[in-house]
Amino acid sequence: MAVMDIKVPDLGDFQDVGVIEVLVAEGEHIRAEQSLVTVESDKASMEIPSSHAGVVKQLKVKLGDKVSQGSVLLMLEVADAAPAPAPAPVPAETSASKPAPAPASQAQAAPASAASSYAGSADVDCDVLVLGGGPGGYSAAFRAADLGLKVVLVERYATLGGVCLNVGCIPSKALLHVAAVMDEVSHLKSAGIDFGAPQIHIDQLRGHKDKVVGKLTGGLAQMAKMRKVTVLRGLGSFVGAKHLRVEETGGAGQEKTGKQQVVQFKRAIIAAGSEAVHLPFMPKDPRVVDSTGALALAGVPKRMLILGGGIIGLEMGTVYSTLGARLDVVEMLDGLMQGADRDLVKVWQKMNAPRFDHVMLKTKTVAAEATPEGIKVTFAPAEEGGSAPEPQTYDLVLQAVGRSPNGRKIGAEQAGVAVSDRGFIPVDIQMRTNVAHIFAIGDIVGQPMLAHKAVHEAHVAAEVIAGELLGDEKLAKAAFNARVIPSVAYTDPEVAWVGLTEDQAKAEGIKVTKGLFPWAASGRAIANGRDEGFTKLLFDAETHRILGGGIVGTHAGDMIGEVALAIEMGADSVDIGATIHPHPTLGESIGMAAEAAHGACTDLPPQRR
Fold first, then answer.
1. Whether this model's pTM surpasses 0.85
2. Quick one: which of 478, 430, 462, 441 has its CA closest to 147?
3. What domains appear along the chain, each with residue ranges and CATH number?
């Protein structure tokens, strides 16, 4: 037996943080990775785990003490005092001013289990094992390889790119572009240009979509080869803290071939993503699809029901409507496209009202039956005392009621990784799980489930790992500190927003100054025949620094990045308004909205004083 000091590991930017809870007592037997104390700064609170198992001989801290990196927490009697890497602190809460990689509610419901011991041999070894080949996974693998590490990437499907490239973001945007052009052409009749009714060749359209996907996924395969990243196709599941079993898959889906191999790793990054939620009472029928099935574009229905009024369902509804389908949408809440300000959504809804026969708000779906005529769906009010329509029959039903993380499908408990009841894996700002050498990124660590968030998290995880393995102190201190993450609905018109919304400001009592520029005053929007939109910016009423913004109109998603950059850089209304934007463009509406906020916009009527 030997006695060793258990010290505070590197906390990044946290120094002289207060101890708000002591979680162990003298004489207590503790396990490796068990939390010892909870500390709190002005940014967040976190639990600091033990690097070893043993018996607590003497506590060296008490409530109210201040600790930093290297502070001794306790003296521990251990059987083997050989040095081990210090585990990462686990966040207990995260300040609302910085988006947490995993919401606190998910983290609190994430019990950790002891890791299994794997005694078998390994077929492959590597510095970094990445589980999942989506935007987060391949970005993590490529960044780690670029930094000089030996990387193995495990992906269950035949091509890299995950849901986003194969059956999500990219194919949907390919179809949405076609739909937007079709709609735009129909508007040109009023300008004297008539192309006549479009002739739709569904097989050719599907081939166009597949060609777009193939070009991107093929490019990823080549980049993996160029970086010498080993790609293993199969279903990955942890069998120990440093081993992953890969069951080989073949064909177009996840059919197992019966072959297996085991990968041994020094570090791992979990990027296993999420899958569409399926309502248990929906029949298994080809006329009931999720987003993947909708993108397969088997045909164009006459009547289509969208379950869920979120972005994914409304985007796919746009495509099918333009191709000829009539739409119904059912949503349990009191509005569509939740998360965006209602004034933005109102513009979209007015433009898109002709697509819908029924918009059923505060309504839920309670039953469905497959009949020869179609899928018969029964509705009920979501609130007591409400009303619901009679059962309706549809040619196609799209389930778009959310996505569920895959945290409970990868054997995480065998590695000792904590997973919440919902399948989320809590991480700290370095994307580290409760197990010091295992990281997690993307959908699996929490909302928002967006590819652009996953990519940035991927770079952080890869850089921290490279810093630790290669002794690069700067890389080892990388952290996910994004102030804001933009959201975009690629409908027509597009709706994009970032940072504080006006609805949030009102609800939280935050005083803001609003700058709004209507596109009815935009020369470019008028020339395009698309002046229905507007650009809105919100500034702190005292400091005048930008807090958030929203845009509704064509190409809103292409422009919202400037607003995100302004928030990250702490720009104020003068900074943005005094920045010369090219004219005539839609983008100059951002500068004009900033000018409107401080009363200097000459493209709008004078403000009343």
1. no
2. 462
3. 2-78 (2.40.50.100), 124-276+405-477 (3.50.50.60), 288-401 (3.50.50.60), 486-598 (3.30.390.30)
